[in-house]
Amino acid sequence: MAISFGDNIDKSFAYANGALKKFSGWFILIILSLIIYGSTFAMVFAMIALLVGIFMTLPTDMAGASFVTSSDAVVAVSPGMVETMSYSASTDMMLSGLFIGGMLAVILVSTVVMLIASFFMSGFILRVYRGDEELNFKNLGKMFWQGIVYFVIMLIYMIPYSLVSELVLYGPIYNTAYFIIACVIIPLFLLIISTVLAINAGIRYAKEGRFGAAFQIGKLCSIISNIGWLRYLGHLILFMLVVGAVELIMMMIPFIGIPLVIIAVPFIMIFQAKFFANLYESGEALEEPAEEVLAVQAE
Predict the structure, then answer these.
(1) What pLDDT was estimated at residue 66?
(2) Going by C-beta distance under 8 Å and a sequence separation of 6 or more, which residues neighbour residue 131?
(3) Among 175, 165, 172, 123, which Cα is nearest to 144's?
(4) Residue ranges per structural domain of the chain
(5) What is the predicted pLDDT for the residue at 255?
(6) pLDDT 10s digits, 144-183
(7) Could you give the CA distance from residue 194 to residue 294 in angstroms, rounded to a whole number?
(8) Which contacts qualify for 134-138: CB closer than 8 Å, 24 or more apart?
(9) pLDDT score recorded for residue 180
């Protein structure tokens, strides 16, 4: 029988608690989390500012209308005024160009910084998936590389969802039935399936140590089926609700709420990763008796 939600919570909490008592890199995880959040915020802010900057450089109807005046008004404009207006316009264009270039640089640097920190974080999560009793930051090069591989695995599993979500927009989206089915239900279904498979693919890669192991889709589906797809989704949703409620309660504490959440991020991250790994191991354990029965029947 698959692991129950309560047992999984208890085992995951015990693992996270025990791991952090022995783990000396808690502060490093907090710094990595702050870097990821900070760079993501900077990237989003820069993208919004970039869009505003591009919009401001576009010619407006007001600017175009200023030249559509009576002939007397045109004659009244002196050469000095024209030169001043031309200089002002060129200065504005230069400043706008510098602003847009600066925002593009911020987006690029923020993305690179976020990815580097995320790769280290992903590599660390893979160690939790493996069930390492002693978590550490040794072999940083290997951790970084495995984090990149994990990122690629997640990216590949999200391709079907991304493609379908893009393609359905070329259909008759103004049709209500089409919009609900093709633009909401189908992409949402693919997102759920892709996410569940990607999580378990990452766990399988962590345990097997082979890139190809992450794409043994038949094996992954069989492991999830042993738990039950609806039961698996129920566990994930309930877990997210519990964690979200705890974080919300902590954030509501005056003055220390947000710092408390930041400090708790490493524990929550390890707790969550172990929860997913326990589910996988539960389904995999149910796979072995079935394979033994088939082997006996074959004999």
Answers:
(1) 45
(2) 15, 274, 277
(3) 123
(4) 5-62+79-298
(5) 80
(6) 999 999 999 999 999 999 998 888 888 888 888 888 888 8
(7) 29
(8) 134/19, 134/22, 134/23, 135/19, 135/22, 135/23, 135/25, 135/270, 136/23, 136/24, 136/25, 137/25, 137/28
(9) 87
DSSP label at 168?
G
Is residue 263 within 8 A of residue 30, CB to CB? The reply is yes
Closest CA to 96 of 66, 129, 128, 59: 59
pLDDT tier at 62 (50, 70, 90 boundaries)?
A: very low
CB-based contacts of 87: which residues, under 8 Å, 6+ apart? Answer: none
Distance of CA 29 to the CA centre of its chain: 17
**pLDDT above 50: residue 296:** no
pLDDT of residue 295: 47
- Model confidence band, residue 93 (pLDDT cutoffs 50, 70, 90): low
- The length of the chain in residues reads 299
Alpha-carbon span 264 to 136, nearest angstrom? 18
For the chain, give the percent of residues with pLDDT over 90. Answer: 37
Place of tokens 């008592």: 21
Long-range contacts of the stretch 186-192 (C-beta < 8 A, 24+): 187/161, 190/160, 190/161, 190/164, 190/165, 191/161, 192/233
Handedness of CA 232, 238, 33, 128 (dihedral sign): negative
